[in-house]
Amino acid sequence: MNAEVRPIKTAAESALSAHFAAAKGALPGAGAVVALREDAFGRFERAGLPSRRVEEWKYTDLRALMREAPPLAAPPAAAAKARAAGAGAALADLEARRIIFVDGAFVAELSDLGGLESGLTVGSMAAALAQGAPLGHLGKVVPSDDVAVALNTAFMGDGAVIAVAAGATLARPIHLLFVNSGLRPAAIFPRSLIVVERGARAMIVESHEGAGADHVNAVLELVVDDEAHVDHVKLTGEGAGLLHVSSLMASVGARARFNAFLFTTGGEIVRNQLFVRFAGPDTVAGIRGATLLRGRQHADVTLVADHAAGACTSRETFKSVLDGSARSIFQGKIIVRPHAQKTDARMATHALLLTDEAEADNKPELEIYADDVQCGHGATSGALDQGLLFYLKSRGIPEKEAEMLLIQAFIAGAVEGIEHAGLRDALMDQVVAWLRGRQ
Questions:
Q1: For residue 262, is it within any domain?
Q2: Contact 323, 358 (CB under 8 A)
Q3: Is the residue at 43 inside a domain?
Q4: DSSP H/E element including 45
Q5: Are residues 258 and 403 in the same domain?
C-alpha cells in the first residue's frame, strides 16, 4: 500500500487558506466567477507555493521567500487616496490618460475618464464582476497552470476592463497607475482585461509604485486581434511591494504588431512573468526589458513565447545592471509548435555586474517541433569593459562619469526599442537618476 505524502503547510500557505475562507463571500462576482475562484484556489491548495523543486521557480523559491501572507487590502480611505494624488511623478510629462488604482481599487475621482475617444471603453473589474458583465476572455486568454496566476484568479479584486473597438486608434497612451499607500501591510491582487480589436492601435503603460511592505500579485490579460498594433510597457518602481509578482497573459492574432517592455528598478523581490501566444500567422513582436538593481534586490523575468502559428517573427532582448549584492534571473523559453513553420525567433539576455557580490542567472531555452525555422538564443554576463573605460578616461572624462556613460549606453540598447519618444526619454531619465543614486 502506498501512503500519500503531503507537505506540511507553511505559515504563508495556511494564512492564504484562512484569508480565502474569510473573504470569498465578499469578493465580487457570482455563479461562474465563484466557480472560477474556487477552481483556482483548489489548484493552489493542491500545489502549494512554488519552490525550487518546480523548474520554472527554481531561482525564485516563493515557498522560502514568502514567510507570511498579509491580509487582503481594505478599500482605500481618504488618507490613502491623498497619498496617491501625487503619484506617477516619473511619468508626469507623459501625455497619457491616467487610470488610477489605490491599494488595488479603482479610484474614479483621481482618474482621467473624460472625453474618451470613439471606440474606447474603460471600466472597473470589480464593478464588471459584481454586475455580471460578460467577460468571456477572463481566465482564457492564455491558459496556464502557474500557481501565482491561480492565486490571483482566486483573490482577484479590482483592475481595469478596457476595450478598443475595431479600427480605432488611441491618440494618447493609457496609463494604468497602481499605487500602494503603505498605510499598513496588505495583499493586493489586481486583475485587468484589455481587448484590442481588429486593426486597432493602442499603447498601454502599467506602473506600480508607492510605499510599504505590501505583497502584490497582478495579472493583465491582453487580447490583440488580427492586424492590431499594441505596445505594453510595465514599470516596477520604488515601493512597488516587498514581494511583487506580475503576469502578462497575451494572445496575439494574425498580421499584428506587438511590443512589450519591462522596466524594473524597485521592489525587494520581483518576478515578472510573460506568457505570450502567437495565435495567428505573420505577426511581428518585440519583447524587451531593462532591470537596474542595487543592495539585496532580487528580480526574476520569466518568459514563454509560444509560436502557435507560422511565419511569425519575434525578438526578445533583456538587459540587467546589478550593484551591491543584487541578483537578476532571466528564464526565457521559445516554443515553436509543429505547424508553425517559417518562424523567426531570436532571444538574448545580457547582464552587467558592477560588483563581485552581484549575481546573474540566465537560462534561455528553445523547444522546437518544426523544421523550417530560424531560432537562436544567447546570454552574456560580465563587468564593465576596462578598455572602453580607459579610453573615456584618457579623453579627460572622470572615472565615475565614464562608468555612467557606459552603463547608459548598455541600457539604451534595450530602451531604444520603445516607439514612443516621450516614454523612451522618461525611462532614460530614470536610468540617469538610478546611476546618480548609486554614487
A1: yes
A2: yes
A3: yes
A4: helix 32-47
A5: no
**Are 274 and 418 found together in one domain?**
no
Contacts of 22 (CB under 8 A, 6+ apart): none
Amino acid identity for residue 344 in this structure: D
Q: Report the alpha-carbon distance of residue 119 to residue 105 in Å, rounded.
A: 25
Q: Are residues 231 and 92 in the same domain?
A: yes
- What are the CA-CA distances from residue 57 to residues 53, 166, 217, 247, 331 (Å)? 8, 38, 15, 14, 9
Closest CA to 143 of 342, 13, 279: 279
Q: Are 124 and 269 members of one domain?
A: yes
Q: What is the pLDDT of residues 369-418, one digit of tens each?
A: 999 999 999 999 999 999 999 999 999 999 999 999 999 999 999 999 89
Q: Which domain holds residue 243?
A: 11-280
In a domain, 408, yes or no: yes
241 falls within a domain? yes
- Res 83: pLDDT: 82
Strands of the sheet with 374-382, listed across from one edge: 105-106, 97-102, 174-180, 201-210, 229-236, 257-264, 284-293, 313-322, 344-353, 374-382
Residues 209 and 80 reside in one and the same domain? yes
Domain count, the chain: 2
C-alpha cell read off for 420: 514612443
Give 280's DSSP letter.
Answer: S
Could you identify the residue written with the cell 519575434?
A: 314
Do 272 and 410 lie in a common domain? no
Give the predicted TM-score (pTM) of the model.
0.95
Closest CA to 179 of 261, 106, 265, 71: 106
Q: Which secondary-structure segment (H or E) carries 278?
A: strand 269-278
| Beta pairing class for 97-102 and 105-106 | antiparallel
**What mean pLDDT comes out for the span 347-370?**
96
